From TrEMBL:
This is DNA-3-methyladenine glycosylase I. It comes from the Bacteria. GO terms for biological process: base-excision repair. The lineage of its organism: Bacteria, Pseudomonadati, Bacteroidota, Flavobacteriia, Flavobacteriales. Its EC number is 3.2.2.20. The keyword Metal-binding applies. Keywords: DNA damage, DNA repair, Hydrolase, Metal-binding, Zinc. Zn(2+) binds at C5, H18, H176, C180.
Length: 186
């Protein structure tokens, strides 16, 4: 049996997420946007809750097509509020629409959201040396900086904790524990 990070439960869904996605560097804007939306909805909830609803989110939010989401009419917003398959938080649903619009603004300014977000780490993942739970930060000065920048641009639900989780999810930072089979030093 392979050893995984301390936070991975017996859930097959959680294990697959850890083994296949978490911490893998993501450079395509579509996936970066998907994780941005999922992480903002996760704020205050457990990640397994989001993973269990991920397919519902995909259906509800047009496969995370930020071009469509950015132009959602009020009727679509209202229908999302009634969708029991997702997190029905008024502010988070509204933020998904706002963040889609702002995501495209960043693309215009930097050529891609990927170019923008990866510039914070000089296009190379930060490799941390996490040995155990106490070594894993919830925020860092870098997540503070990214959060502040995104908030200045008008993004919602992008506090430092959310941004650090996002950095981990999309591989800007490698926080696999050193005893995890996914830990890499390069």
């Amino acid at each position: 049996m392979q050893h995984r990070c301390f936070w991975v439960t017996d859930s097959k869904l959680y294990q697959e997420y850890h083994d296949i996605e978490w911490g893998q560097p993501v450079f395509d804007d579509e996936t970066l946007f998907e994780f941005l939306i999922l992480e903002t909805f996760q704020a205050g909830l457990s990640w397994i809750t989001i993973l269990n609803k991920r397919e519902n989110f995909r259906k509800a939010f047009d496969s995370f097509d930020y071009n469509k989401i950015a132009t959602y009419p009020e009727s679509k917003y209202e229908s999302l509020l009634l969708d029991a398959g997702i997190i029905r938080n008024k502010l988070k649903i509204r933020s998904a629409i706002i963040n889609a619009q702002l995501f495209m603004d960043v693309q215009q300014e930097f050529g891609s959201f990927s170019a923008f977000i990866w510039s914070y780490v000089d296009n190379e993942p930060i490799i941390n040396k996490v040995k155990e739970r106490k070594d894993a930060p919830a925020t860092t000065p870098l997540s503070d900086k990214i959060s502040k920048d995104l908030k200045k641009r008008g993004f919602k639900f992008v506090g430092s904790t959310v941004m650090y989780a996002y950095m981990q999810a999309v591989g800007l930072v490698n926080d696999h524990t050193m005893d995890c089979f996914k830990y890499e030093t390069k």
